[in-house]
Write a structure and sequence with these properties.
Four copies of one chain form a homotetramer.
Chain A: E1 28-42, E2 50-62, H1 71-81, H2 90-101, E3 105-119, E4 126-140, E5 144-157, H3 159-164, E6 171-182, H4 188-196, E7 201-202, H5 209-221, H6 226-239, E8 243-252, E9 260-266
Antiparallel strand pairs in A: 1-2, 2-3, 3-4, 4-5, 5-6, 5-7, 6-8, 8-9
Helix pairs in contact in A: 1-2
């Protein structure tokens, strides 16, 4: 069995090793390109789509009878799609890829930094705070499964340390990873807000002294363990009718240890 | 509801915030410590157990009625176990942890470098080659699920490039990640050999000129795509009666691109 | 001794700890912010300035008599400058920062991905290839010292392996880091071209089969050691009258080893 | 001009490309191997030498008249030296390497994790805390220049936040990098202690509740900026007659920002 050659560019004389038959009878779940940097524009849910740089994994399944996939087509499909990447476009991109490769399904992982403008809580001094977004999607003829993830830095202050100490309480930067499957799109900016409201305090890029006083006191008034952080978020995601599935991880870069505290909850099916 | 205090060390006067009740009714799948560096000795399947440095994640579930876990106990259980860590010991370590935390199950991720002595193919010059091992285990009262992984560097030479070029063929370092669930233990060293025999050539630390000639010609004689690499390994794992489940990933640091070629196959249930 | 308070935002009531005197008589070379992600637009020397995401370090010296710097001003100066960052602007940004902080000098490190469109050598198929750029600058009242760096992926094919083997030759992805001090600006795109022409072959994102044949044969016809790579570049930089100082590093991700080959040359004063 | 062939292993028939002449008249400062993992045993200054895994860079200069170095000899010299690596041995290793390569000087970079047992401050619960060590050495016929570095995690509590807030103060994990050139060896363990005593608190792996109370209160009682941290250390290193040169960096993973605070001081010549 032979796939049609990639005849748009392949001259008759060059052997198409990839399209030769394979006899091991092992279909491959995912084959393609990984760790590719690519400039994209992505909608955050507030303001214009943002220009950013994504790290991309783009794969498709390979039926058992073919020796190899055609790697250049992954790049061609990505380049042909162009830089503006709305979550709504991912399904079309993956189906185009699957069709060109004679695959049943295709898969995308896309991770990128993005920014939200944030005003300091007292002085209102404006600054840009950075986050990480991720789209993970699989599409076949009939359906598309999209998981949207944000990675958000927060402040966490330890309830135990506060309860037992005569003054102060250890606190630290934490990092929350929230992943969702949704019925209707939930913007990245809204996912960030949900996470930030579940912590002892949100982070800021610019804080003047009156702001620093405010966030210090706010964190002291709102102690959370990593356990509290993931439960605070889970309570919200459990009650949001738009959300079909969720997973939340919290990791604290403990200020009193050289290891991290960690918690994970996933919605049970 | 209240868990017994950590009375071996906790003086009566200090409030045990973690043991206080929680009313959100959300059990936590995994809570514990992450990104902890810890010295271990681990059996490779050849020679004495090797001293190495592991990066550890150690977690347990938290029933919904408790506010927090007791983080110090994860460290105490790990320290009490001591440095020599055979895969056979993991079950005991995890059950000890679950018991001390009043959890139903506990989970461990342990990743570490290890070394095999390898002789150059012609001159026999000896050298140490490095690999990465990983144990991922979950245990409850009744059973333990252990996944053993090796990450192995290899040489891959492109069959397409060889077939179409009048001289030479692009080749590169690749990296294979092989994970197994087994009926009986398969040593890390044996997993490494399986991967190395499936590539265009294995890697070496010391190669004199006659050796370099031999590995260059061997790779040229044995071209493999990432697709071939994962299938070569899958053929073996499919036929090994000791192996219950397997997953294999291959990633080529392509010498003609700035992105990587990637393939993944998982045994279907 | 006391610095004027940061009176634009600091209410009279809040103590300015940073401006308090220090008696240890130790001036600090660099103090400020590090590992800050910030969106910028940067001119590459071809086409429009590109939108990208920089990782920023921004510091200033601290005279011995002050206890601390004012961290929020680093962010304010960066935000006030705005996103478009031409190398010509860096001097102004650093002097503004030094003035606001009562420092003698200020220092910037800025690293970011950027892209060049590249056409495949036979079919002309277009694709975007990624590079890393870096500006490292120190400015005081009188002068500015700017070092511009590009990190460029290349193909290297081993001359020894080719000379001794009956067929093929090991080759791999390599990475070249070229840093320059110049009399007049040299665009990043021109620095990339210099590096790419010194290797066995340049890299591409899209290669169809006729292109893959061409780059395979080109690399085989142009073998280079890491030593050749850095010397090829040094020969050019030594003879370019615009270049005052240069340093070049090459690192090969050897396809036959699990370690890298490395070479470094710096222009002698 | 031709170097003697590597005749211990090179058969007469194989061309020694590396030893062929080069006419570009560019000597190379450093050429060799990088990013090599290698098991070592290293003395910490307390207890037995520790087994650990080093990441190694090993290079030598290459005179202008030779085309290439002989990469396999770097590995042979390292393997011949064996695993136990005392700082006192580095000079001999580098001179052996330089002699075998007909180089004037050789250079080593060696980075590795190490551990110290630490008892919790109140309960005395024992645990292992991890650090990173680094040896950076250059040797020629006449002299050896050795720089010894430790990277140490600490707790820092912000003096400004404490001074202006009605309760609490932001604190975080910080990381200090201390490098020394010394007249007589100073053990890694002693360098660690110097750093830990200069912070708001040292870190621990095991802390029971009475310990957590103690370290929380200790940090609150000893606030330091990154500026204070580097000055506290500089005061000591300036007055230690064994120390010829020093450099200290501090980086705080700020709990209220997503970027880090950073300070650097180097001893003026």
């Amino acid at each position: 069995m032979k796939r049609p050659d990639d005849d748009s560019t392949g001259p008759a004389g060059l052997r198409d090793t990839q399209s030769e038959p394979d006899h091991r009878r092992i279909a491959i779940d995912r084959v393609g390109v990984k760790n590719l940097r690519f400039p994209i524009r992505v909608g955050i849910g507030t303001g214009e789509p943002q220009s950013t740089i994504a790290t991309v994994q783009l794969t498709a399944d390979l039926p058992h009878q073919f020796k190899g996939t055609h790697m250049s087509r992954f790049l061609e499909v990505l380049h042909a799609h162009g830089p503006v990447l709305h979550p709504e476009d991912i399904e079309h991109l993956l189906r185009t890829l699957a069709r060109r490769l004679h695959s049943q399904s295709a898969h995308l992982e896309l991770e990128f930094p993005f920014f939200l403008e944030k005003k300091a809580p007292v002085t209102g001094a404006a600054g840009l705070l950075d986050y990480t977004g991720r789209f993970s999607a699989t599409a076949d003829d009939k359906s598309t499964d999209l998981v949207t993830t944000v990675i958000v830095g927060v402040t966490t202050l330890c309830p135990c340390s506060k309860a037992i100490s005569s003054s102060g309480a250890h606190n630290q930067r934490g990092q929350v990873t929230l992943s969702l499957r949704t019925r209707s799109p939930i913007p990245l900016a809204e996912m960030v807000t949900l996470v930030e409201q579940s912590a002892s305090s949100e982070l800021y890029s610019v804080l003047k002294r009156p702001d620093e006083k405010a966030v210090t006191e706010r964190a002291y008034a709102n102690p959370v363990f990593v356990e509290d952080l993931v439960r605070n978020i889970a309570e919200h995601t459990n009650h949001d009718p738009r959300i079909v599935w969720w997973q939340v991880e919290a990791e604290n870069f403990e200020s009193i240890h050289n290891h991290n505290a960690y918690a994970l909850v996933t919605k049970r099916p």
